[in-house]
Amino acid sequence: MRSFFILLLFLSGMFGSVSTAIAQAEVQEIYSQRPSVLRFQTRNSRARLTPADRKLENDETWSKNKLGMLRFLASLKFYPKNYQFYFLGRDAEPLFDLATLLFAKDPQMRNRLHLINVSRPSHLDPNLWKYLEQEGFSEKNAAAGMEFLMIDTGMRGTIPDFIRTSAPEGLREKIHAHFLLSANVHYPSSRAFLSTLEPDALRGDVRDYENQILQFENLDYFTFSVLSYQSIQGRWEGLTGPSYQAPGSSLHSLMGSGFGMGHDLLPMATDRNPEGAARVQRNLFDFAQQPSSQGEFLRMIKLWERLRKAYQKSALVGSSEFLLSEMATIWSMSQKKDFMSEAVVRDALDLIRKNNPFSTTLRLPTLSMIKELSRSQSCETSVSRKTR
Question: What is the pTM assigned to this prediction?
Answer without folding.
Answer: 0.85
